[in-house]
Amino acid sequence: MNRKIPLGLLLLAAAPVVASGPRGTVPKASANRYPSHAEKDGVSVGAALLTSDEVHKTFVSEVNRCCLVVEVAFYPAKDKPQAVSLDDFSVRVVGAETAVKPSSAKVVAASIQKSAESQRDITVSPSVGVGRESGTYHGTYTEVGVAIGVSEHGSHSGSSERDRDTMSTELSEKGLPEGTASAPVAGYLYFPLTKKKNTPLQLDCVLNGNRVSLTLP
């Protein structure tokens, strides 16, 4: 008989019921509120590289196992919607030629699932609630969460298909929304690489056909 010991609960998304709603994160007041920021032809972008501790606190999924996480915010020019695509981003070690593109939520979830097979037994299950938001976005929203527990017997940590799907949902809901943005948007990008201590990284992005580079300390 399996015994589950609850370890925690993390809210994953807050999307207004009345519309598809914003996903990702709530953008700060302006791009210069982020550690790295730039502007090109009226379009601004801000970015922040999350530390391992910040990733651990932000995600239930063990993203530290496979990826670096960068929060990115876009600020389109007034009355000029901006196309946002994962293909417009890459990260490289400063001075290096080789760059890494961000991975999709499904790819990251599959990578975590694979690396989790040798870990201790943990079960991951989704939970859903309803609440009301009073910040930048107003209205009723749904809250999708993940409850984690330890099992004495059973599948390995995050190794089941259900676990993978749950992790994919979390990563997708918090990821940078793709599409055409007519208002500021923000969210996380997942880069499949590790960062050596004291090695600065460079985030490259395309704004209106022009490449802009931001240093991620």
Structure description:
With 217 residues, this protein is of the alpha+beta class. It has one domain (4-216). Helix content is 15%, strand content 42%. It has three helices and twelve strands, in the order βββαβββαββαββββ. The strands form four sheets. A four-stranded antiparallel sheet has the order 2-3-4-10, with no helix packed on it. Strands 1-8-7 form a three-stranded antiparallel sheet, with helices on one face. It has a three-stranded antiparallel sheet with strand order 6-11-12, with no helix packed on it. β2 (36-40) and β3 form a beta hairpin. The longest helix is centred in the C-terminal third of the chain and has 14 residues, at 161-174. The termini are far apart. The model is unreliable at 1-22, 125-144 and 147-157 (pLDDT under 50).
Secondary-structure topology with pairs:
Layout: E1 4-16, E2 36-40, E3 43-49, H1 52-58, E4 68-75, E5 82-84, E6 89-93, H2 105-116, E7 122-134, E8 138-151, H3 161-174, E9 179-181, E10 185-191, E11 201-207, E12 210-216
Antiparallel strand pairs: 1-8, 2-3, 3-4, 4-10, 5-9, 6-11, 7-8, 11-12
Helix pairs in contact: 2-3
The topology string of helices and strands comes to EEEHEEEHEEHEEEE
- By DSSP, the count of extended strands is 12
Helix content: 10-25%
Number of domains: 1
Sheet with most strands:
4 strands, antiparallel
Structural class: alpha+beta
Taking all Cα atoms into account, the compactness measure Rg is 18 Å
